[in-house]
Amino acid sequence: MSDAGWSEKLLGGFRKTSDRLSENLTGITGGGKLDDATLDEIEDALIISDLGPSAASRIRGRLAEKRLGAQITQIGLKEAVAEEIADILRPVAKPLEVTAFPRPQVILVIGVNGSGKTTTIAKLAHLFTEDDYGVLLAAGDTFRAAAIGQLATWAERAGVDLVRGPEGGDPASIVFDAVKQATDTGIDALIVDTAGRLQNKRELMDELQKIRRVLGRLNPEAPHDVVLVLDATNGQNALSQIDVFKEVAGVTGLIMTKLDGTARGGVLVAAAEQYGLPIHAIGVGEKMEDLRAFDPDLVARVIAGVA
Ligand SMILES: Nc1nc2c(ncn2[C@@H]2O[C@H](COP(=O)(O)OP(=O)(O)OP(=O)(O)O)[C@@H](O)[C@H]2O)c(=O)[nH]1
Ligand SMILES: [Mg+2]
Fold first, then answer.
1. Using H for helix, E for strand and C for coil, what is the string for the chain?
2. Is any ligand 1 atom within 6 A of the Cβ of residue 111?
3. Which of 71, 142, 181, 261 is deepest in the core (most CB within 10 A)?
4. Ligand 1: which of 127, 198, 204, 257 to mutate, judged by most atoms within 8 Å of the beta carbon?
5. Mutate which of 15, 117, 119 to test ligand 1's pocket (most atoms within 8 Å of Cβ)?
6. Does the global pTM surpass 0.90?
7. What are the tens digits of pLDDT across the range 234-279?
């Protein structure tokens, strides 16, 4: 996709956030002077635009530090806000890299129902094979009927092998088999699909811990990555998902999907500020090619309305 097409798509995923922010920043009073009252309004605008209280307060503090009392234009204000947002996002923009030694690198993919886990796995498999890594998938979602078939279809499209078991089988035993196969065949990256689970479903959360235990027994370093997939259209709910999955499953990084729709992507800034977890990539469509590196400067400019 061309750069223009790509930022246009991205604009969609942050539109609700950036429209709100734009609307509120435009309405700001103070006669162009950045005084305390204006800073209050900016902070409020940031909070209601999904960036959350913590990021909003940090941005306000930084603006006050640098520019309190200064004259500032509308566009200057947006530029300044974009710069502060980028400062929050830059440290967390970290692509998922295959570095484990010994191989394989085991990547466990988790999240609530329908967040985009299986599609994201296909995208990662595609990305890694393009880089000439050997990839194996494990069908750890034995819970939802048709989940195994869905992953099998993606595996075929991506041209990678899949380890599967019976529907209703024990995911931990499939994962066990997959690690052995990956090790025996010199695979670089083993990506494990898991069933969608709501934060409050105890049994499924226990199952996740069991998968982790089994992996750890085979290789104390595994899983090397525990990637939480978040649906951008869920807005602030993403934050409570991070809270719970971090606690139960030791999340090491995030991928946010569906940023091509009309999502409230601003929550990514809240997540970056509150948790500091790496954001590996973002999903911008349903196809295998629709995974993008997380570009903090571009995202910040899109949110602030100066892209
Ligand atoms: N527009 C858009 N749709 C996406 C994206 N990622 C996934 N989807 C769609 O979201 C729906 C759910 O995707 P899945 O990958 O099956 O989600 P899942 O988390 O594996 O779902 P469960 O296994 O049921 O928990 C599908 O219709 C996907 O095509 C994305 O980045 N953009
Ligand atoms: Mg799935």
1. CCHHHHHHHHHHHCHHHHHHHHHHHHCCCCCCECCHHHHHHHHHHHHHHHHHHHHHHHHHHHHHHHHCCCECCHHHHHHHHHHHHHHHHHHHECCCCCCCCCCCEEEEEECCCCCCHHHHHHHHHHHHHHCCCCEEEEEECCCCCCHHHHHHHHHHHHCCEEECCCCCCCHHHHHHHHHHHHHHCCCCEEEEEECCCCCCCHHHHHHHHHHHHHHHHHCCCCCCEEEEEEEHHHCCHHHHHHHHHHHHHCCCEEEEECCCCCCCCCHHHHHHHHHCCCEEEEECCCCCCCEEECCHHHHHHHHHCCC
2. yes
3. 142
4. 257
5. 119
6. yes
7. 989 999 999 999 998 999 999 999 998 878 889 999 999 999 999 9
